[in-house]
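Notebook, p. 212. Picked up where the previous page left off. The plan for this session was modest: take the two constructs that came back from the sequencing core last week, fold each one, and keep the raw output in the notebook itself so nobody has to go hunting through shared drives later. Recording the first one now, exactly as returned: residue sequence, then the structure token string.
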Amino acid sequence: MFTQNKCLVQYCKHNALSTFDENGMMTNEKGYCLDHIPNPGKSKEEIYNYINSTQTIIGLNAAGIIFDNINFSNKVFIGCNFSHCTFTNIQSEELRLRMCIFDFANFTDCNFIKSNTMFSSFSGCTFSHTLFTTSDLIHTNYNGIKTYQSSFDNSDLFNSRFIKATLVDTSFRNCNVKKTMFIDINQTNVSFKMSNTREAIFDKEGSELFQGI
């Protein structure tokens, strides 16, 4: 997992952003969170450069950073922290994620087609016009997410969680939802057509709602 160095500001409880040496390699040195770092522009540029130049990224802490028009396709992220980040116009085809945290991040016009995600968390995230189609999204936490005009079609969602999610104009067509939890969700114009909903876990209201779909 990412190095959990606390921000050097004594009263701050946030983790510090990852630090880098003069060669652009990630270090374990202590530093500041995004709110307190002396030169946020420099830190953001170091993180962008590191992602662009590295194929397999392990233990990066980029919490709160804004990512716009960046290509993450074919990248591998392991044990990274992207909580409270903003992602806009991100291309991420065949992205691989393991044990990564994206809690409370915002995604707009993003593409995660054919991505492979396991043991990661997107709790509290907002997805607008975002595609997860033809992806493996296994053992992943989507609790409390909000989705708008997004698609998980043709994906494997085995044993993932969508508890208390708000799903609007969102499609789960032809998905494997075995042991996937859709408990206490709010949904508008959601389709589970051709998905194995009898293998999923809905609350009583949800079970009746999706029966036969």
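Okay, moving on. Second construct, recorded in the same format:
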Amino acid sequence: MSDKRQNNQLLLAFAEENRGEAPNGLSGGTESFTAKRGTESPAIGEQLMEEVCGRENCKRALARVKANKGSAGMDRMTVQELPELLKQHWPGIREQLLNGTYEPQPVKRVEIPKPDGGIRKLGIPTVLDRFIQQAVMQVLQGRWDRTFSEHSYGFRPGRSAHQAIAQAQKYIAEGYRWVVDLDLEKFFDRVNHDRLMARIAERVGDKRLLKLIRAFLTAGVMEDGLVNPVDEGTPQGGPLSPLLSNIVLDEFDRELERRGLRFARYADDSNIYVRSKRAGERVMESLKGFLATKLKLRVNEQKSAVARPWNRKFLGFSFTSNREPKRRIAPKAVDRFKERVRELTQRNKGVSIERMAEKLTRYLGGWLGYFGKCQTPSVLEGLDQWIRRRLRSVIWRQWRLGSTKFAKLRQRGVSKDLAAQTAGSAHGPWRIADSPGLHIALPNAYFDSLGIPRLTVRL
């Protein structure tokens, strides 16, 4: 079935309970539903669930879930199967949502390694629950986002990590050259449900929607074949969780603003900039108390510190200590980059350099999209040279025998004497990779021809 035909059938399914709906609104659909059910319509301002189930909102939610792809949940249904499910069962699902009887499935526990060590626990909802969460998130975000702090940058439309980093850079340039680097301990696992729901209830009067959000929070986690209950936390992995985290931490943002502090926050990663170490230490101790008593959250003592900004990292970046600070890639981020490149360029039997280049190119494209905004070109130049030396050493290993190496060098324009000297060298591949013979045989232009991007091109 074509995507266009499938989308048309889904629109019909979304609209089935909304036959009186105006083309670009929800009022007609609400009246149609109310008349059909014979029940009293919620008060004005409390019809958010009707908006969640509205045709346009659902259409956007489905498109987003399909675009995000992602793994199957505990029911093993894939994103590709979701449209057919909605086409067949959406009227019944919608009725459950509007009646307040929909029950989410437990999330599937998935553990992934963190870049700086440790394990991050994700909770993967079923694709149907992801769709419903996305629809709820869109409605709540439309009302909530404009009220969030201007210093909050994570998981918000039109905002990015790069903006948070630029704001931090501006504070440092203004003379706030000490940072209170706060890391919340297992934040997504420690969110207090009662406090979160109380915050949401301040602005949401639709009890059906409040009940649904609470149900998502307490749906449980399937781990090792068993479903375990959940009484705190908002599992990472669902579309609704990032918005809920911002709702929780908005209270923290307001406290920082009330104190007149300069800060930038991205999700649970907060940096506060002050003029002295002593001021930073006072702020750190005071905020620990606020977080513990007001938000029931703990600061990770090992990962938090009062320090110079150039000795810390923020969202993968750090800064130089110049009067006009420059953005630079944090050393740990450089280490992770090299580790990933090594994984992608392992000397695997049967893997051609062309195939290796394809995988490497995809990774470098994404990496450049983020870290290409650094302001220290010498670092990128060094990484460029390191990548090509790494590739030369891999190719040298693939050539194997001395006679083969000699022939390959000659084919690639290396003189007879230099080819013999290089092929007969007792040095290892890494040392040979930086030799004149390999630079002639495998110039940068060769790697350009494979499509491997140069990291310094943007600069």
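Notes on construct two before I forget. Strands lie at 107-113, 119-124, 178-183, 221-223, 226-228, 262-266, 269-274, 305-307, 317-319, 327-329.
Flagging for discussion at group meeting.
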